[in-house]
């Protein structure tokens, strides 16, 4: 079934719809329109993250662009583009979305092994590229900070929330922000006693760059977690921690970057807990006791009554 759109544009082609709305588009959306105009097949060939990168904007902005054209989201937009340019082939669409290492006919065991191999390679690449001295300096800054802000959007926002929860449990006054308005409001209140952490695989997510930039301007010590050390996000940071580049064979990028990001965040978390061992241990025990009543006890072992 072809995904439904909110507004089919009265039969207008996608190119016509873009042209009609071009004058009222914000600059970031206009750059997406430029990419699509120059390369009409780009939405079919690129993931939402890749299209955002090529346009120098964020995945969230690409979604807003699609909705401005009358589509529910990027998937529906891609189907519309594929239909217009005659590239609605299901196999090609699968490869664009899931990667060429995975086939729609693969057995579950093969899929599992392929994913395992790719994730292990990503983790190993991240570990090899990490500057442990830089990680330790970042952990020291986190434990000494009055306030820690963590910024991330989309998949990186999930990682930001995970890291915030861990830090909070060991007594770090940490807060995470995915909404740029909320994040900027917090960032402007930071100072030299604060730490601000921006998480973005590409380092080019506009909202994350804006939030970290504002925190830097306010005087916060800044940390970037990204695979691109030459990205705008990394350029803002006092310390930049590199993750592995997304593999070209696994899509969407979120499938191959989250484990790399989580490895770096886990390392930061454990090092921060080491720095405040006594306090951290006490708080972890207290939080475990607090939630214990909400966990069901293991089932009691039942003796075997089937024997002779």
Automatic annotation (TrEMBL):
Domain SIS: 138-278
InterPro entries with a match to the protein in the record: Homeodomain-like_sf (IPR009057), HTH_RpiR (IPR000281), RpiR-like (IPR047640), RpiR-like_SIS (IPR035472), SIS_dom (IPR001347), SIS_dom_sf (IPR046348), WH-like_DNA-bd_sf (IPR036388)
Keywords: DNA-binding, Transcription, Transcription regulation
Pfam families cross-referenced by the UniProt entry: HTH_6, SIS
Domain HTH rpiR-type: 12-88
SUPFAM superfamilies documented for this protein: Homeodomain-like (SSF46689), SIS domain (SSF53697)
UniProt superkingdom: Bacteria
Signal peptide start-end: none
Gene3D superfamilies the record matches: Glucose-6-phosphate isomerase like protein, domain 1, Winged helix-like DNA-binding domain superfamily/Winged helix DNA-binding domain
Protein name: MurR/RpiR family transcriptional regulator
Record lineage: Bacteria, Bacillati, Actinomycetota, Actinomycetes, Micrococcales
């Amino acid at each position: 079934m072809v995904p439904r759109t909110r507004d089919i544009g009265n039969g207008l082609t996608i190119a016509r719809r873009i042209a009609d709305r071009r004058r009222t588009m914000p600059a970031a959306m206009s750059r997406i329109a430029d990419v699509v105009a120059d390369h009409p097949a780009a939405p079919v060939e690129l993931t939402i993250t890749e299209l955002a990168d090529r346009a120098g904007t964020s995945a969230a902005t690409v979604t807003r662009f699609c909705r401005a054209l009358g589509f529910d989201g990027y998937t529906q937009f891609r189907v519309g583009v594929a239909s217009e340019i005659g590239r609605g082939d299901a196999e090609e669409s699968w490869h664009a979305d899931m990667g060429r290492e995975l086939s729609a006919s693969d057995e579950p065991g093969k899929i599992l092994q392929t994913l395992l191999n790719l994730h292990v390679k990503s983790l190993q690449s991240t570990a090899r590229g990490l500057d442990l001295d830089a990680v330790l300096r970042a952990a020291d800054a986190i434990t000494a900070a009055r306030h820690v802000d963590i910024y991330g959007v989309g998949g990186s926002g999930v990682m930001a929330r995970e890291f915030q929860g861990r830090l909070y449990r060991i007594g770090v006054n940490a807060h995470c922000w995915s909404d740029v308005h909320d994040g900027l409001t917090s960032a402007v209140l930071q100072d030299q006693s604060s730490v601000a952490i921006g998480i973005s695989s590409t380092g080019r997510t506009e909202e994350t760059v804006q939030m970290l930039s504002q925190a830097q301007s306010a005087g916060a010590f800044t940390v970037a977690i990204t695979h691109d050390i030459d990205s705008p996000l990394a350029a803002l940071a006092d310390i930049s921690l590199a993750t592995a580049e997304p593999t070209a064979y696994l899509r969407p990028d979120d499938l191959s970057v989250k484990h790399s990001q989580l490895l770096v965040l886990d390392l930061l978390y454990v090092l921060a807990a080491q720095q405040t061992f006594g306090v951290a241990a006490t708080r972890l025990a207290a939080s475990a006791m607090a939630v214990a009543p909400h966990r069901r006890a293991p089932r009691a072992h039942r003796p075997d009554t089937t024997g002779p």
